[in-house]
């Protein structure tokens, strides 16, 4: 009888730990949203990997700049050199801009509003965005936010979270609507 109770207790404990592990990204996201609403930057920052976030955002903008560069840039000559120089200046400006804007206040506003278009809400904002989530394997999750007032076909802002330890999750990437890719 004692063995059955011990076995049952072990099974219940294992199910509890497994449930906590599985639902841990939702707990982290809930803690971030609560901290963002309360303006608690310290709690919010504990769930953000800022160096990785900066690198991912710089990569997105760099690839966007590369895709929008004129075809003559790869052809050589004066036009190619000018386009290459312009792209180099653009990348340097993007890096400085990202380093300057990627502060806790900006990321907190983006999570609160589901938009990355400015620090202050506009009068037409409906408040809470619509949230959807998708797991990409065991260690990655994407939360997509869409403003309720936006058009039905509009692409959402994506927030990518990665597991950091047993049950800790950190924001590592923001996928912007203009350049979002699944």
Please specify the SSE layout and strand pairing.
Elements: H1 2-38, H2 41-45, H3 50-68, H4 77-101, H5 104-113, E1 130-135, E2 140-146, E3 157-163, E4 169-175
Antiparallel strand pairs: 1-2, 2-3, 3-4
Can you walk me through this structure?
It is a single chain. With 182 residues, the protein is α+β, with helices and mostly antiparallel strands. The chain has 2 domains: 1-47 and 108-182, no CATH class; 51-102. The chain is built from 5 helices and 4 strands. It has a 4-stranded antiparallel beta sheet with strand order 1-2-3-4. The protein is elongated and about 80 Å long.
Q: Biggest sheet, in brief?
A: 4 strands, antiparallel
Radius of gyration: 21 Å
> Which residue ranges are poorly predicted, with pLDDT under 50 across at least 5 consecutive positions?
118-124
> What distance separates the N and C termini?
53 Å
How large is the count of helical segments?
5
Reading the helices and strands in chain order gives HHHHHEEEE
**Quaternary structure classification:** single chain
In terms of DSSP E residues, the strand content is: 5-15%
Total individual domains: 2
Count of extended strands: 4
Read across the widest sheet, the strand sequence of neighbours is 1-2-3-4
- Bulk shape: elongated
Helical/strand content category: alpha+beta
Give a short summary of the structure.
The protein is of the alpha+beta class.
